[in-house]
Amino acid sequence: MSKRLTPKNELCSLRNVGPATYRDLEILEISTIQQLTDADPDELYARLQEITGHPHDPCVWDVFAAIIHEAKTGEKPPWWQWTAVRKKRKSNETNEL
User: Fold this and answer.
1) Cβ neighbourhood burial of 86 (10 Å; 0-12, 13-18, 19+)
2) How much is the pTM?
3) Across residues 57-85, what is the average pLDDT?
4) What's the domain range around 90?
């Protein structure tokens, strides 16, 4: 029996986990919410690209940030609220160069 997006898989209870994010988490060997509490969106995003061998949309970082935040706090903001955070961080990195 597949564990994909079944009500029994706890990752599916997270607001921003749909089929694509679930597949990404499978690739990253993340199968529990507890694992996300110790995760970092930068590391997950970089590792996903390394494993798959191709770049991913920056919004994937936003989703990772949202689900990690939910895992840590229980708050369920939509993933797109993290877009501004990512863009501000990128802008700060560019300004530091």
Assistant:
1) middle
2) 0.88
3) 97
4) 10-96
